[in-house]
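Changelog-adjacent note: as of this version, every example in the card shows the full chain rather than a window. The one below runs 212 residues end to end.
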Amino acid sequence: MDRRVYYSFHEIPFGYEYGYIKPRMGFSSREIKEILISVIVLSLAFAIAWTRGAYSLLLYFLPVSFLAVVTAFACHEIAHKYAGIRYGYWSEYRMFPQGLLFALLLSFIGFVFAAPGAVMIFGMPSREESGKISMAGPMANIFVAIIFMLLASFGILYNVFIFVSHINAFLAFFNLIPFGPLDGRKIFAWNVIVWIAMIVMSVALMIISFMI
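Full-length structure tokens:
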């Protein structure tokens, strides 16, 4: 039997005849369930934290919390998934139940630190691929922050939209910290210039969202 060494992931032939199906953008039933659970728990956690004990206001804060979580968390993770699949890797979101429970418990003291889950990349991406896949999440937050900032500048639901913009800018900044499992470490290892540009954009957006 002929053997061939592939020096790049992209040289590997895909197709049913090779016993491998190239991944396409889509969501498994398990993935949809875990994304929904994560969104619901995070939305509730942030709403509880913002009430600061005035739980009668919970229904008022929940819609705003839900919008912030969907645009910041869900868009971030879906962007990672899309980038991973574009490079030919099976990519699926997996929630961290302990992280979600911890976020919910912390919310009762008015503080939320969330590690709800992450997109798992199945394969061995190169440093460049890993950097670009990691870059996708914070870039999604930066784009969302800009869009909601523009909407707020036109006076459309100003308080809500400027808050959503700020949350997205902060999430981009936080994930760009070049430490541990955060996106920033992989982006920094791939391209320092790209990392600097992204961190500057996220900080600038946070500052502008406070000023307008």
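Structural remarks: DSSP finds seven helices and two strands in the chain.
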